Amino acid sequence: MFCVIQKIQKKKPDLYGTRKEIIVTETKFGFVGEEPKTSYGYTYSDERFERPVLDAYKISIHHSYRENGKVKKKQWVICTMGYYDFIDSWYGDHYISRALEEKLNEMGIDEDAFHEMINAKLEPLIEQIESDFQQTEEYRVKKKQDAILETHRKVQKAFEDLYGEDTYRYCYDVFGELRNPEYLEKVIADKKIRDEYTRRSYEESFKRNYSNYSGDDSSYYITSQSNYTDDEKKMLHEIYRMASKKFHPDVCGDDGSKMKLLTKLKDQWEL
To answer: Is the pTM of the predicted complex or chain greater than 0.85?
Structure first.
């Protein structure tokens, strides 16, 4: 029993080559009464690379045997793959699993033996096809696009780990170009407010926990809390307004505990 790869010719070329460009998209939206924000995403151009190679390969398993003194042959066609199918997919994507099970039962072999037989025959062919494809302009463009998107994902994650989820796309596009410097300034300012609030909360908690403690070598005293400036209060009011929309019980579906805490913070901020 052995694998046979038969080269044939397709009548029509592959129409689904790599798209030639990554294009920045702009989407504007916002809540009622607010100035719309612009989100920068990406899509691909409609123009694709032509794939002119018409070669295709029929993969089958052959078995020769003797019956009543005569040589007989039997074959099982597994699938047919075009030249570019080897670039974009695995041969296992080109057959129906249930149909393969039936054929394996007829052959009398298990799936591991089947794949070992196929791979031994396909590996040299795949290596040659990939080597040829790597000389094309389509391959070079695809590698460049993959690198752009990989860098975009890493930079976006690092940015949002620092400044918060869903912030990067309002400042930068997929190529890392700053599109909205004003919104970037707002994102940075919002983080400063959060950091300052965290710092003050920690200090107040520390003072409450240790205000009555006095030891031989040290003492702790409560000092009055400094007031927020008018600019800080404006930013805190904006934070409260945005958070109240997100944490309202009708929106988040909880028991109202998040909104109660937010209201308590508003009172503490003296808004």
So the answer is: no
